[in-house]
Amino acid sequence: MRANFPVKAFEGIDTPFYYYDADLLRETLATALREASKHKGYHVHYAVKANFNPQILSMVCKQGLGADCVSGGEVQAALAAGISPDKIVFAGVGKTDKEISLAIDAGIFCLNAESIPEIQAIERLSAAKSAVTQIAIRINPNVGAHTHANITTGLAENKFGINYEQLDDVLSVIDSCKHVKLIGLHFHIGSQILVMDDFIALCNRVNELQIHLRDNKGIILPHVNVGGGLGIRYDAPDEYDVPDFRLYFDTYAKHLHLFEGQQLHFELGRSLVGQCGSLITRVTYVKEGTCKKFAIVDAGMNDLVRPAMYGAYHKIENLTSSAPCDSYDVVGPVCESSDVFCKDVELPQVSRGDILAIRSAGAYGEAMAFGYNCRTLPKGYMSDTI
Ligand SMILES: *Cc1c(COP(=O)(O)O)cnc(C)c1O
Question: Are 297 and 206 within one domain?
Fold first, then answer.
């Protein structure tokens, strides 16, 4: 049992709020970097969209990771946190001219381009600035990750990436561009992946493609980026607090064949920040239904949308009580039937005013919060500053 919540300090803070265990975050980031650095040419970028809280970004920067961004706003957030432009990559199917210009002006390392019209836009905007912009092409590897349908991104008819059939056309467009320099291949197959088989399938596709490009086109690019997607154990946040980064990087080392000098980039989000965060909420009422009890809490789906959006499971703990357990549906106050955090949870008997922790909420929690029902956005606190 690792989690150690400063419940006394929580009493003085307005709920709901996000609480981040700074020691666990530091240890997780350091472990990922240490395991990656055992392999030559491996680079880890933090996927900013998982959590753009400035304190988290600042720790990511201090630990020396790069950033993977999916909007101009995220590029700005990464720069503001002190992350060096030469460690920033920028993906996304719908980059606007404004966002591309921002990236060119900042001199970021690489734009991961996802279509021919996007490459043409990068060419036009770079020419206007007399710049040469480094790009990677995001290839759709047609690998299905065994995860929720809404978070697979690597299947053929998916809005993301460039399909194999289009590759020749893409390469000839890039050939005709004087202000775009192709430096790499980019892939990302989805999120919350816990079986290494999916990553191995990706490695096999990357190997085939690299050999095809070398043998048929004489192309060997200096960079390969395999995206992120490593999952976390939502069912056991304390037993599996730091994900198995060794297994993850070793899997790539074993199955992905790099050519001499090639650099391999990773874009990890959830696995780096997921387990360090909890949504802390207070019980407003305990309501007796006909055959159920509801613990109505002051956090709602607007604060943490994953259960409502993906049917995602988050472990819930009662931090106040250690009475014998009873069964509750833990629900929020928002006027939607889907505003349910978890049904039939066994919790030490819950009373009005008890403080609950909704665990494993560091990734896609605070970052996805919204203001439905005129609710205020939750704040985030680091353990070492409260
Ligand atoms: C979301 C995303 C990631 C990070 O995914 P995780 O599952 O959080 O590791 C990495 N790369 C791209 C392009 C993404 O869109």
Answer: no
| Residue 246 host element (H or E) | helix 245-255
The answer on pLDDT for 2 being more than 60 is no
Which residues does residue 268 pair with via DSSP β-bridges, in sequence order? 46
Q: Which of 274, 308, 336 is the last residue of a domain?
A: 274
Asked if residue 262 and residue 190 are part of one domain, the reply reads yes
User: Domain for residue 13, yes or no?
Assistant: no
d(C-alpha 293, C-alpha 350), whole Å: 10
Distance 188 CA to ligand 1 centre (A): 7
End-to-end CA distance of the chain: 22
pLDDT digits (tens, 9 = 90+) for 250-274: 999 999 999 999 999 999 999 999 9
354 and 211 share one domain: no
* Backbone φ and ψ of 252, nearest 5°: -65, -40
- Same domain for 226 and 260, yes or no, is yes
- Write out the residue range of the structural domain in which residue 317 sits: 276-382
Pocket test for ligand 1, best of 68, 249, 310 (most atoms within 8 A of CB): 68
pLDDT higher than 50, residue 1:
no
The pTM (predicted TM-score) of the whole model is 0.96
How far is residue 36's CA from residue 43's CA, in Å, rounded to a whole number? 7
Query: Distance, CA 116 to ligand 1 centroid (Å)?
Result: 22
Determine the residue type at 218: G
Instruction: Give residue-wise pLDDT tens across range 37-48.
Output: 999 999 999 999
Domain of 57: which CATH number? 3.20.20.10
* 225-237 tens-digit pLDDT: 999 999 999 999 9
| Residue among 61, 51, 161, 41 at smallest CA distance from 113 | 161
CA of 226 to the centre of ligand 1 (A): 10
Pocket of ligand 1 (CB under 6 A): 47, 49-50, 68, 70, 91, 188, 191, 227-230, 267-271, 363
Q: Do residues 208 and 333 both lie within one domain? A: no
